[in-house]
Design goal:
Blueprint (H helix, E strand, L loop, with lengths): L3 E7 L11 H21 L5 E6 L12 H9 L10 E4 L3 H12 L5 E5 L4 E5 L4 E6 L2 H13 L4 E8 L2
Antiparallel strand pairs: 1-6, 1-7, 2-3, 2-4, 4-5, 5-6
Length: 161
């Protein structure tokens, strides 16, 4: 059982008024979203991340995420494979490809940092769920949250005893 749960909701101020600049703003929010998650992953000092899918396929629609599909094929990972994917912490490009696919409601993946007992789940609604049972990392995660606090519309912190 995990002792801590952080739930973060990223602010999307452009949704009140959609304009021709909306795509640029969505892209900017996506990049911010990716930076927050990558910063959290990097503070763990781990060597690799385990990707675990919680749907039948890694990619629901291969046409939507061609780059990710190509990367999986090059690495001999079948779309319907039951295995997890282990990626190097330095492979930020693959992490971002999966996060882009998640934001498109096209992949359903947990990022697991096994040696620190952390599970990161992101949604297509710009939510970040962090589950962990490691008191020493709480302040580090809070520091990352504080850095991006002006972009976080909601933050909840739960602790189970």
């Amino acid at each position: 059982m995990f002792g801590h749960t952080f739930v973060l909701k990223i602010k999307l101020p452009f949704l009140e008024k959609l304009t021709h600049n909306t795509y640029k703003k969505i892209n900017w929010c996506s990049n911010l979203f990716f930076r927050i998650i990558v910063d959290i992953i990097h503070l763990t000092d781990c060597d690799y991340i385990l990707l675990h899918k919680y749907s039948k396929k890694w990619i629901v629609n291969k046409k939507i995420q061609r780059n990710l599909n190509k990367t999986l094929k090059v690495n001999n990972i079948k779309n319907i494979s039951n295995s997890n994917i282990i990626i190097d912490i330095c492979d930020v490009d693959l992490l971002i490809k999966f996060m882009q696919s998640i934001l498109m409601y096209n992949s359903f993946v947990n990022f697991i940092i096994n040696n620190k007992k952390i599970i990161i789940t992101v949604t297509d609604h710009f939510d970040i769920f962090l589950f962990f049972d490691n008191d020493s990392i709480t302040s580090d995660i809070q520091n990352v949250v504080n850095i991006y606090s002006k972009y976080i519309i909601a933050e909840e912190n739960y602790f189970e005893q």
